[in-house]
Amino acid sequence: DAGVIQSPRHEVTEMGQEVTLRCKPISGHDYLFWYRQTMMRGLELLIYFNNNVPIDDSGMPEDRFSAKMPNASFSTLKIQPSEPRDSAVYFCASSFAGTSGGYTQYFGPGTRLTVL
Amino acid sequence: QKEVEQDPGPLSVPEGAIVSLNCTYSNSAFQYFMWYRQYSRKGPELLMYTYSSGNKEDGRFTAQVDKSSKYISLFIRDSQPSDSATYLCAMSPDGSSNTGKLIFGQGTTLQVKP
């Protein structure tokens, strides 16, 4: 398996622009997670899905952030409008409840977002 | 108080040293305990996981869980410069209490100097 795939790997945009981050989870996994990582705040969980249904979005910072999972193999995280404080590395991770290891999560390579 | 506490370091050791990384937690329902390793500019990758108490060994790495003290450790023997990374602990409950979400520590940054 190719692992979790994220695109783009790097994104530089100007304040006010819309940003869309994409994720393809590992085939067969039924959980998908979106995280944000900064030096100051570490790894923060933004939202997660189970079987394409959002379970907990309490980590989404504001209404400017939205996430969708239209099918089992694709998810998006959208920021509109973007602000400089959104600059961070955004990770997508997936897991499968049926394996051992307590729903061990597998991370993608991340999208490094810079908002100017 | 956070559910999982981890000293962010940084921790700097000479090559060949034994490294001890630790996390404490407050939720007695946690049964699965994991260690992730994150190299600079990469995503976290699973290093080891253990279930309930006890030790688990994998090469130079040993994961230890002490549920009575709510304390987990990762030991690295004969540390190498290639071990330089951030190490994050993570944990979750078992059974019906498991929502699929992992609770992560803040991560400890380790530097192994040649």
Instruction: Report on the biggest sheet of chain B.
Output: 6 strands, mixed
Low-confidence stretches of chain A: none
Class derived from helix and strand content of chain A: mainly beta
Give me the secondary-structure category of chain B: mainly beta
Query: Radius of gyration of chain B from the CA trace?
Result: 14 Å
Helix content of chain B: under 10%
Share in helix of chain A: under 10%
Number of helices of chain B: 0
Task: Give a quick precis of the structure.
The complex is a heterodimer of chains A (116) and B (114). Helix content of chain A is 0%, strand content 53%. Chain A contains no helices and 11 strands.
Protein architecture, described:
Chain A has 116 residues and is an all-beta fold. Chain A contains no helices and eleven strands. Chain A has strands spanning 5-7, 10-13, 19-24, 31-38, 42-50, 53-56, 65-71, 74-79, 88-95, 106-107, 111-115. In chain A, the strands form two sheets. In chain A, strands 2, 4, 5, 6, 9, 10 and 11 form a seven-stranded mixed sheet that branches. In chain A, strands 1-3-8-7 form a four-stranded antiparallel sheet, with no helix packed on it. In chain A, a hairpin with a 2-residue loop joins strand 5 (42-50) and strand 6. The model of chain A has no long low-confidence stretch (mean pLDDT 94). By secondary structure, chain B is mostly beta strands. Chain B is 0% helix and 56% strand. Chain B contains no helices and eleven strands. Chain B has strands spanning 4-6, 11-14, 19-25, 30-38, 45-51, 54-58, 61-66, 71-76, 85-93, 103-104, 108-113. In chain B, the strands form two sheets. In chain B, strands 2, 4, 5, 9, 10 and 11 form a six-stranded mixed sheet that branches. In chain B, strands 1-3-8-7-6 form a five-stranded antiparallel sheet, with no helix packed on it. Chain B starts with a strand and ends with a strand. The mean pLDDT of chain B is 93. At the A-B interface, strand 5, strand 9 and strand 10 of A face strand 4, strand 5 and strand 9 of B.
